[in-house]
Write a sequence for this structure.
């Protein structure tokens, strides 16, 4: 499987194209679809990858990566249905949409792999979770994992866990951005210039993430290493606990999971 079509060239679709090219894929083996002609022309000029119609992509590509918004999936499946079969591989990057939806709408035996990526794909640091559908084999999962490894890390999970993955890592970057935004505002409140507050917090976030990744220490151990008796950090932690930050995060992630479930159910009768 060498020819890949990315259906939908938004941020995630473009990031995948860029990563595949950086990973050594030839531009002639890639193609993409894009509804807006100006955007399509811009991407072709920048990456040297051809823009095509959905029908052309279905006829020419071995792997079709569906990267449209979940609410836009129906017309795409309508176009793909008469053109795909067991010799194609469909990769869904659409949040909340189960492989069963594709399997109902496409020809019997069409292999589908569901993926939940996240936006750090644009800097080659995505966390992507893959789940095979009924007709997808271990080889299909290997192919998809290899493609996604060009733009970050990959883990395989049962599809029953995809809604949880969506809530945790799919939406996860937004939680970190939210926290960083609040901490920058706190720095300004304490009298620091915005540029200084941003530098302090962003680098602290990068450094903390690298420590988590490289030390294999539990987050509690790393936090305790910063938390001296009667010091500044423990006073800050007390306030976070007093205001229910931990409980709020748990509730927020549950709410995101529930919304992912709703997105999938909205297409159950289609």
């Amino acid at each position: 499987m060498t020819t890949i079509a990315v259906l939908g060239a938004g941020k995630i679709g473009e990031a995948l194209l860029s990563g595949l090219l950086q990973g050594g894929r030839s531009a002639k083996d890639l193609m993409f679809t894009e509804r807006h002609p100006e955007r399509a022309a811009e991407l072709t000029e920048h990456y040297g990858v051809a823009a095509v119609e959905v029908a052309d992509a279905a006829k020419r590509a071995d792997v079709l990566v569906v990267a449209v918004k979940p609410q836009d999936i129906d017309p795409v499946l309508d176009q793909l249905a008469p053109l795909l079969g067991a010799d194609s591989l469909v990769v869904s990057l659409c949040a909340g949409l189960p492989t069963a939806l594709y399997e109902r709408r496409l020809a019997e035996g069409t292999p589908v792999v569901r993926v939940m990526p996240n936006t750090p794909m644009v800097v080659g640091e995505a966390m992507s979770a893959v789940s095979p559908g009924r007709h997808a084999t271990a080889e299909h999962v290997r192919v998809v994992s290899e493609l996604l490894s060009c733009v970050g890390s990959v883990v395989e999970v049962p599809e029953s866990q995809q809604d949880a993955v969506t809530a945790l890592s799919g939406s996860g970057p937004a939680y970190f951005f939210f926290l960083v935004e609040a901490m920058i505002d706190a720095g300004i409140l304490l009298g620091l210039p915005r540029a200084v507050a941003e530098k302090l917090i962003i680098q602290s976030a990068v450094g903390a993430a690298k420590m988590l990744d490289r030390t294999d220490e539990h987050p509690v151990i790393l936090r305790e290493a910063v938390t001296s008796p009667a010091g500044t950090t423990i006073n800050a932690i007390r306030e976070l606990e007093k205001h229910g930050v931990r409980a709020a995060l748990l509730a927020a992630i549950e709410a995101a999971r529930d919304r992912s479930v709703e997105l999938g159910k909205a297409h159950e009768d289609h």
